[in-house]
């Protein structure tokens, strides 16, 4: 196959997927809605404030209340997220980089803004890695969310294995915080 044919095939493959970034390099509204769903799914503080909202259900992302400044991803939340997307918890070095370079609260927890910044950087530099994460989290090529049943089997296993640990960490974090 010629280089031109390879390039055309690569472009055709990319054309089948929804855009993550627009022409100016900003997140598309559909991609931002997907990231909000992911953030809500893993944020213990969001789940505590919205106990009736289940971000892992296949309802429209628009129906989810937008996380606010009080909603963050703690280290335990980040580890749960990383285990689902990458099969392992985040190394401490990565957590330190998140605190140094992305938007965090006073305690060093990742804010929604920081989570979006993280995916903006990744999508600009390695869109295939973003698509890999989105697929593991139950999103299709049009950024539609198909619910947990659409997640890759290894994702479900990883999430099940960390759910008890994350729940224990969350309970310790919010003990007496009513």
TrEMBL record:
<feature type="compositionally biased region" description="Basic and acidic residues">
    <location>
        <begin position="165"/>
        <end position="178"/>
    </location>
</feature>
<protein>
    <recommendedName>
        <fullName>EF-hand domain-containing protein</fullName>
    </recommendedName>
</protein>
<feature type="compositionally biased region" description="Basic and acidic residues">
    <location>
        <begin position="129"/>
        <end position="139"/>
    </location>
</feature>
<feature type="region of interest" description="Disordered">
    <location>
        <begin position="1"/>
        <end position="23"/>
    </location>
</feature>
<feature type="region of interest" description="Disordered">
    <location>
        <begin position="47"/>
        <end position="67"/>
    </location>
</feature>
<feature type="compositionally biased region" description="Low complexity">
    <location>
        <begin position="7"/>
        <end position="19"/>
    </location>
</feature>
<feature type="region of interest" description="Disordered">
    <location>
        <begin position="126"/>
        <end position="178"/>
    </location>
</feature>
